[in-house]
């Protein structure tokens, strides 16, 4: 039996911070763009 | 998002002429953090890093409704936009999430070292914990059936493959958090 809990992220809540490598070098995540309104678009090649 | 790494993603950003920064999520990190099961997705953060919009599945920067929503947020016409809950992710336990995260990371590392079969085996173990997760399933497909993704993506094959795999999984009792469907009479 699977136990389910409320996880993930929700409107009005702080986004968890993360940092991942950029294709053009360096890293990027929410912490790096603090102070600006930012759209993160999640896509894949598949 | 691509467990085959930056070199798999780069041709697509170049073809799209992307002018925005692109990060590569090789280990499924963001799916674990934001708890999504499919893509494409959009998340809008305000200046303080507060989530003001999120759309899991079907977000498209060429879709007029999606563009309008983001424009309203940029222009300050609304503080946040709540979408219909349809398509919102179900949730797994912390233990299940940690197990999936470990399997996905190990698989990516194995794949990077050329151990494709072992990598796929790890990803399949992750999928067994979360069989409705298309982000995991499609990355397995991409490793096992690359000809279905390059040079073009065979969407009809994906639909058929998904149906075949789910039928086989359900027959084995691998059904996800909502359980197995009742058998048809």
Relevant terms:
heterodimer, A: 46 residues, mainly beta, two-stranded antiparallel ribbon, 3 strands, globular, disordered N terminus, B: 185 residues, mainly alpha, 2 domains, 2 strands
Describe this structure in words.
The complex is a heterodimer of chains A (46) and B (185). Chain A is 0% helix and 20% strand. Chain A has 46 residues and is mostly beta strands. In chain B, helix 4 (94-112) packs antiparallel against helix 5 (116-129) and helix 5 (116-129) runs antiparallel to helix 6. Chain B is globular. Chain B has a two-stranded antiparallel sheet. Chain B folds into 2 domains: 6-75, no CATH class; 94-171. With 185 residues, chain B is mainly alpha-helical. Chain B has helices at 6-16, 29-34, 64-75, 94-112, 116-129, 134-144, 155-171, and strands at 41-45, 51-56. Chain B is built from 7 helices and 2 strands. Classes of the chains: A mainly beta (46), B mainly alpha (185).
Short structural summary:
The complex is a heterodimer of chains A (46) and B (185). Chain A has 46 residues and is mainly β.
| Unreliable sequence segments of chain A | 1-6
N-end to C-end Cα span of chain A? 32 Å
The main sheet of chain A orders its strands as: 1-2
* Average residue-wise pLDDT of chain A: 85
- Count of beta strands of chain A: 3
Lateral strand order in the biggest sheet of chain B: 1-2
Using only C-alpha atoms, the radius of gyration of chain A works out to 14 Å
Average pLDDT across residues of chain B? 88
Overall shape of chain B: it is globular
Strand content of chain A is 15-25%
Number of domains of chain B: 2
SSE sequence of chain B, one letter per element? HHEEHHHHH
Largest sheet of chain B: 2 strands, antiparallel
């Amino acid at each position: 039996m699977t136990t389910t809990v409320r996880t993930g992220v929700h409107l009005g809540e702080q986004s968890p911070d993360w940092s991942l490598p950029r294709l053009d070098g360096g890293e990027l995540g929410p912490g790096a763009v603090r102070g600006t309104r930012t759209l993160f678009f999640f896509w894949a090649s598949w | 998002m691509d467990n085959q790494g930056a070199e798999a993603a780069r041709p697509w950003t170049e073809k799209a002429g992307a002018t925005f920064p692109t990060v590569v999520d090789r280990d499924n990190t963001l799916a674990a953090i934001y708890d999504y099961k499919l893509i494409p997705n959009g998340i809008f953060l305000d200046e303080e890093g507060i989530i003001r919009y999120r759309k899991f599945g079907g977000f498209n920067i060429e879709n007029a409704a999606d563009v309008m929503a983001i424009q309203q947020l940029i222009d300050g016409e609304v503080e946040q936009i709540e979408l219909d809950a349809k398509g919102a992710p179900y949730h797994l336990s912390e233990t299940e999430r940690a197990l999936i995260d470990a399997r996905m990371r190990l698989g990516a590392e194995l794949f990077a070292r050329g151990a494709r079969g072992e990598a796929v085996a790890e990803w399949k173990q992750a999928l067994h914990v979360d069989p409705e997760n298309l982000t995991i399933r499609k990355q397995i497909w991409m490793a096992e059936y690359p000809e279905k993704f390059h040079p073009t993506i065979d969407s009809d094959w994906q639909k058929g493959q998904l149906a075949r795999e789910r039928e086989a999984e359900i027959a084995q009792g691998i059904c996800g958090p909502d359980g197995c469907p009742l058998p048809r009479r």
